[in-house]
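Write out this protein's structure.
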Amino acid sequence: MTAEQSLAFLVIGAMMAFFIWGRFRYDVIACSALMLAVAVGIVPFDHAFDGFSDDIVIIVGSALIVSAGVARSGIVDAAIQRFLPNISSVRAQLALLVITVTILSAFIKNIGALAIMIPVAFQFARRSGVTPSVFLMPMAFGSLIGGLMTQVGTSPNIVVSRVRQELTGESFTMFDFTPVGATLAAVGVVFLLFAYRLVPQRTSQHVSVQAAIEITDYTSEAVVAAGSPVIGKSLSHLVKIGDGGAVVIAVFRRGLHVAPLPDIKLEAEDVLLLEGGPDALDRIVSQAKLKIAGDRSPSSTEKTGAEVEAVEAVIGSGSPLEGMSAQRLALFNNHNINLLAVSRQGERLKQRLGSIRLRAGDIVVLQGARRELPSFLQDFGCLPLAQREILLGTIRKATLPLLVLAAAMGSTAVGLVPIPIAFFAAALAMVIFRIIPLRDVYRSVDGPILVMLAALIPVSDSLRTTGGTDVIASWLGTVATGLPPAGALTLILLAAMAVTPFLNNAATVLVMAPIAASFATALGYRPEAFLMAVAIGAGCDFLTPIGHQCNTLVMGPGGYRFSDYPRLGLPLSLVIVIVSIPALMLVWPLR
């Protein structure tokens, strides 16, 4: 082993140790490892920042934006409410999520399948009162094992088919992977449904800030618009849309107060006084197609080209708003500001929203042009709360985000464009069509995750450029010659699993597949089972967040630490190995 190879192993080993220790944030560790690798000479100066232009960084960043656009549209909430209104058990929710992602991943790119279902996971987490981390890691692992079932399910399957073509003159076909892959997928899904408790319940930093300022007793007003799907349905049906996060405290019909009984039938132009959290209020308003705050909407502001947003603010002592109501101030007509909701500590507000006399200490949700809100808050003595996304009263495009995502995945499925181009174009479309406001685009992209990936790529590649992979291959060749057939097959599978976190999974196949074929030939065996073992090992990185973009994609939203992945991933890897070896030897006989 040369000095450069020794240094590559030492740098990567030290980096992994710091990741597992968890004392420093992962992007800081990755950047430090990159600088150390440059300092000792295993990463050339002119290649130190190659990772920032790598396809994986583009794919992950774009997928985060696309997923945020799908979540923002509200179509996921509407679909769950319509088709799965009563699913509240954590295990039942997990089963639906993991099975769906696993099946989708067999036919579309697994990161696309995962991006579709991440918003559903957040909705289920909110409904069942658990953190999204319970769902996201099992979903990511499900997307990996789902990709094992077909040739197009994951990159290692495609690459190993090409390697077999080069070695034997015959490629694997679309469903040659299905017998073993489907067996592993079924076993893996069952394991995840029972072992999900190994996943620690983490909360991302962004979610923690939101929880600290969460206000759940806002009073808002909405009108049942003509054409609303809740016309003729009971009040309890409407409330159910909010998943218990909001209630109707008053109904005004043709100027008269009507008792808000659960069984009263809603009519067009009914005015509803709602109380609850912003998210629940938004779900009710958007899914029931209600008009928020009377006939006021941001559309008149949007026509001017101004960006509209909603903010939460506290009315300060001595504010000109004290003792005044929105009607008396003519808030919308005079200031182009819309009052969406009011919260008053220790008191339930039962008046119409426009007639509430505001007090110092009231928390209000105000909507207006982004450039006008700061001056209004300053002039009227209002103190903005810590910024969080308030969707109440915003106009969303329901089906367009899904069409954008479908176009991206369809174009990659038929080979029209590469995955990075397709997902980058989809993310750009989310901005161009104003599915995501410009101010929220970079908030959707998890910067530390992308920096970590970009820094790790040249560090990991140093294992290949210094010849470290050749050392591994030589060691495997020495060990495998003394093993029985099942042992040699197991060794190849474990080696592919071990190497994948440091090379991307396609590169792992390119390095390991010729080694596996040489083993088979030297031992007098057919190469198919060994090539399949390489594909399975390269496609099953459950031990780190860096070996596959699906694992990376859920790290930020799930609030996971580096050391969380082996807690579920190590036993799942053992299950995959135990099931794979006999299945491979049965489906692909060695002789």
